[in-house]
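Design job #97: recover the sequence.
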């Protein structure tokens, strides 16, 4: 049995509230008592009843808010309206409203799953004195307990012992557990007070509770199970209340929220099956838990967010976008579609084309091109028709300096400052190419491009010296049998020994261009 004292009023608006319920067919006047001539009217209106209570309350003009309005309800329909009416008479008498001549209206409501009644009267006694209202909510609970024969102190002791059998990691989790049992807890000076109905029923040293803390209260498997359950029933619930009810009724799980009722900042999960308390945010973030939207509505939000992000940052790439979508919606973009929770929707084509282009731009910018020629060269390879979107950067990364050192080793390790085979550079991960009259060593794996001319390398060593090669060839011919076919000149076209001669497929003095480079 629960008694809820509702706000006072100067205008007795509770009468209009209850009469409105009557007009809608979800309530009826169960009893009218001590209303004098108004009782003789066959169907008194809300104005008739309100006017009488206001005139009655003028017996004590110092009382500004004379309305006393209380609702008494039971669990389900375990009590009939007549039984609740008898209980109401005893309750009002214990609260000081039982004097002869005290006007009283009692309405029965039928618009909820619980049988309940509303009582409206004045805080002015028939003799004009003010009926004691000090600590009335505490006294109300004491009256309920006395009438029902409840021993709250004993019950609090039993509930505390039950709570201690659960697994929890902090005082906050213990408080959430007691809250799910209907208690309020607070700590002061090393003592935890357990309160209900405005009365402190038990005090416990904080050290006693802290001694029961555990390092973990759930495993990965249970976490996955709870996450799946919460997401499933969130998608079928209209609001937080319905979700909490379903979790309690179907799974024996309490959700305890922290913060304002309309915008909680966190929640705890009380799993009565495993007797564990968990920080809900580690199972499912509260923003995601309270997102009571249909899948189509969520995809529409994601679509709008992508549009907004690309407007504010026209060069945002797929990786950057997915990092944001993952945080906010647990979603990602792939192959032209938005994916979330096993479902997908096509992304608008212009957005997908923009993201793919931005990925190519990011690839080009990862080389840190310093000149327009370098940028344009990379844009041709990356198939970017608008090179102006690519930013130039003079930054030289650690990787750049490491690869520069590797090139220095290549040049210094070849004797006599002679010709360096292109295969030597390929083996080191470089491709040699001409960009606007400068020779570059490009490492596509490490995203490094080095201007050999600007770095002071002797680029003549990359051009084959025919006279030197011919002298070596003459010496080789002197010791070979005359029957052996002489080697063809490098410039004379392709021969069967040509690759053996220079270790390179192609014209000896040819410089690689980007047509031979693969991204």
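Job complete. Output follows.
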């Amino acid at each position: 049995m629960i008694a809820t004292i509702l706000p006072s009023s100067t205008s007795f608006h509770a009468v209009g509230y209850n009469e409105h319920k009557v007009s809608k067919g979800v309530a009826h006047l169960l009893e009218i008592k001590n209303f004098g001539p108004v009782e003789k009217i066959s169907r008194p209106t809300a104005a008739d009843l309100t006017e009488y209570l206001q005139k009655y309350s003028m017996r004590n003009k110092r009382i500004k808010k004379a309305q006393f309005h209380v609702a008494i309800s039971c669990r389900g329909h375990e009590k009939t309206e007549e039984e609740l009416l008898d209980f109401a008479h005893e309750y009002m008498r214990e609260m000081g409203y039982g004097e002869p001549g005290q006007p009283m209206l009692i309405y029965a409501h039928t618009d909820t799953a619980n049988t309940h009644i509303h009582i409206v009267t004045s805080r002015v006694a028939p003799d004009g004195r003010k009926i004691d209202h000090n600590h009335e909510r505490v006294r109300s609970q004491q009256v309920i307990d006395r009438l029902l024969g409840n021993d709250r102190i004993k019950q609090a002791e039993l509930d505390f012992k039950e709570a201690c059998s659960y697994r929890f990691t902090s005082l906050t989790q213990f408080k959430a557990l007691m809250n799910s049992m209907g208690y309020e807890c607070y700590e002061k000076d090393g003592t935890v007070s357990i309160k209900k109905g405005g009365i402190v029923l038990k005090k416990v040293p904080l050290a006693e509770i802290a001694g029961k803390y555990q390092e973990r209260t759930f495993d990965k498997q249970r976490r996955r199970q709870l996450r799946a359950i919460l997401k499933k029933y969130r998608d079928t619930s209209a609001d937080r209340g319905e979700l909490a009810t379903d979790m309690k009724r179907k799974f024996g799980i309490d959700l305890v929220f922290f913060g304002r009722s309309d915008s909680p900042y966190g929640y705890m999960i009380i799993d009565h099956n495993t007797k564990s308390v968990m920080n809900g945010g580690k199972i499912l973030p509260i923003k995601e838990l309270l997102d009571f939207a249909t899948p189509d509505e969520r995809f529409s939000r994601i679509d709008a967010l992508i549009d907004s992000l690309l407007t504010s940052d026209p060069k945002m790439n797929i990786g950057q976008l997915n990092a944001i979508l993952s945080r906010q919606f647990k979603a990602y973009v792939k192959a032209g579609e938005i994916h979330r929770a096993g479902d997908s929707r096509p992304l608008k084509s212009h957005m997908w084309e923009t993201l793919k282009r931005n990925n190519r731009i990011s690839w080009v910018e990862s080389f840190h091109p310093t000149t327009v020629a370098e940028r344009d060269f990379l844009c041709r390879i990356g198939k970017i028709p608008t090179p102006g979107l690519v930013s130039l950067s003079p930054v030289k990364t650690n990787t750049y300096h490491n690869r520069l050192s590797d090139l220095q080793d290549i040049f210094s390790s070849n004797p006599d400052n002679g010709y360096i085979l292109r295969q030597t550079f390929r083996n080191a991960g470089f491709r040699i190419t001409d960009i606007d009259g400068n020779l570059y060593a490009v490492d596509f794996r490490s995203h490094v491009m080095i201007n050999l001319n600007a770095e002071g390398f002797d680029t003549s060593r990359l051009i084959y010296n025919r006279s030197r090669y011919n002298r070596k060839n003459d010496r080789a011919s002197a010791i070979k049998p005359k029957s052996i076919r002489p080697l063809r000149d490098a410039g004379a076209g392709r021969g069967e020994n040509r690759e053996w001669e220079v270790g390179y497929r192609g014209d000896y003095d040819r410089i690689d261009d980007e047509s031979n480079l693969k991204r």
